[in-house]
Specification:
about 160 residues; alpha+beta
Length: about 160
Amino acid sequence: MKSLILCTAFLLVSCDNNQTKLPTPDTHKDETSQTIVTTEKTPPNNENNFSGKQTLALLQGKWQHIDDQTNYLVFEGNHRKEIAGDMNEWDDEEFILSDKCLNKSNKSTDMELAADQYITCSKSDLCWYIISVDEKNLTLSYMGRGNTLEYSRVKQNQYLTAA
């Protein structure tokens, strides 16, 4: 009889602890901006990920590196341009937005597939993973070293006077 009472008490306590809590609404969520946020270890869920066209559209424009103010990155169509420091000319190369790195150096590595989250420049044999991108910020992981590169969008007139 004691064991029956103990079992009943245990079930009541465990049932009370397993109640699901409703999520609290995010009052700071900005409904006007589109953002792609992923982690380097876990690729984005295809159900919640933007399409390649949306990712490509968010990439378009001029970006300035957060730490190195002389480093600019520009995406125009399917061209990636970069200039930094004492460079006299822009590096300009076509890129492919894909589910994994397509360049020779990173092709053989075991990487997670992530829909339209990799920027591959085949000519220079370089690849970046898009950690996040929105109207104001771009965060990339350079696959060659795994370092994180953070950029902020540059306004057109600011860009023309700065570069």
